[in-house]
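yo, Carbohydrate kinase PfkB domain-containing protein is done. seq:
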Amino acid sequence: MKQFEVVTVGGALKDIMFYTDQAHVVKNPKDVACQKLLAFEYGAKIPVQEVFVNYGGGAMNVAVGLKNFGIDVAPMVCVGRDSVGKEIYSHLKSLGISTYLMRVDAEKKTGFSVVVTSAKDKEHTIFAYKGANDHLEIFGLKDFRTQWFYVSSSNRKDWAFEFEKITRQTKRNVRIVWNPGERQLREHEKMVRFLPEIEVLILNKDEAIELVEHHAPRATRANLESPRFLLKTIKDMGPQKVVITQGARGVVAIDEREYYYYESAMSVHDKIVDTVGAGDAFSSGLVAGLVRWGNFNKALKLGMRNSAMVLYRIGAQNGLIKVKL
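structure:
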């Protein structure tokens, strides 16, 4: 039977990245869960300064990050029977990452994304075609053992049915780190049902606000802007630990003892090249620290350091720390 320290579940795709100085960041104060917009002139032909091609997807990015820390990891992903799928397979193989849990859907195309980045402030918006990623089924749970699952977002209509297959593994002392996505937040009632089974829940601040708005409808705007209020409210929904990422403001977290944590972002703003993949880099550092040390505070610090290093390089998998823990 195959043995892994971590299995990552989610997306694997190809990233096409555009840089342009024609992007405008627009404040959107009327929507507390969507406070900034990336805008372009309507109907214009936008010049692009640079184009880069890389690989991405939550499960793939985190798997690469974990492998760099010496963690025995396998991504559970789905690709199409096409040239891009073959590229992803070869890429994982070249890094020494197991493809045991990689599946091919002959009827779907491999996912890809177009990443539009503002050359001015290096912030980005991603247009993602999920393709075969949306047809990933949780499989083979009797054929391997793992200590941890890292589960990223899913756009499947029946995502809850698939996710429940993983949460059943907690009966075998398997721990789950969950970084849910748009569909999970939209179907928040289903999402909340799983939270008592989660070891670590990772959200960005907008996602945390959206979740709390649904389950604490009387919360004031001041409440929703308070990290401690968000952390405690979400912690009371059941997860052992909650982490809220805040971009340039670092991360805040709460553990099972209701101790609060704050890790500031490293001061690299004037050196930032690209912010794509910073969240996945944080996740891989956090999970690696938990697997190797079991210390939440040290794991948060490692996650922040890994996230900062990615900002210096183009692409979600470049710049990641490479050191065996």
